[in-house]
Specification:
Blueprint (H helix, E strand, L loop, with lengths): L30 E6 L10 E7 L3 E2 L3 E2 L4 E8 L2 E5 L5 E5 L4 E4 L5 E5 L5 E8 L5 E2 L1
Antiparallel strand pairs: 1-2, 2-10, 3-9, 4-11, 5-8, 5-10, 6-7, 6-9
Length: about 130
């Protein structure tokens, strides 16, 4: 075994459904339901779950501190505002992936009449600080 390999007793597992939103940190305007998260199962460094945003919802400014965020849009659209005074934005729709770097203040918005649904992954953990 090399020095980069470590033996562990952890085993792969399947999560069949998302948990209750109360199990993880939330931002107003979005509902995050955890599936894989530190303290639940074997993972110690990653948070993954389902995220939904109601039509015409816009959350508050927030950051995820040292956590990087990646998301996949299944349904609807999400707009992410960032930059000084949140004047810049990107928008993703079904089949698109989004990346938000660590320590990036941003605002998430669903500016349309259709619910937005996606898969969200963040590491380390679902760190959320509303600004």
């Amino acid at each position: 075994m090399t020095t980069t390999q470590q033996q562990t007793d952890a085993k792969p597992y399947v999560v069949h459904t998302v948990g209750d939103a109360s199990e993880t940190t939330q931002t107003p305007g979005m509902v995050r339901q955890p599936a894989i998260m530190p303290g639940k199962g074997e993972t110690t460094k990653i948070w993954m779950g389902k995220v939904t945003a109601a039509p015409r919802e816009k959350g508050p400014p927030h950051t995820h501190l040292e956590a990087e965020t990646a998301a996949y849009v299944i349904q609807g659209h999400v707009r992410v505002w960032f930059g000084e005074n949140f004047e810049q934005w990107i928008e993703a729709g079904p089949g698109d992936f989004i990346f938000v770097p660590a320590n990036t203040p941003h605002i998430e918005e669903n500016p349309y009449d259709e619910e937005q649904v996606g898969i969200l992954c963040r590491a380390p953990d679902n760190l959320v600080v509303n600004l």
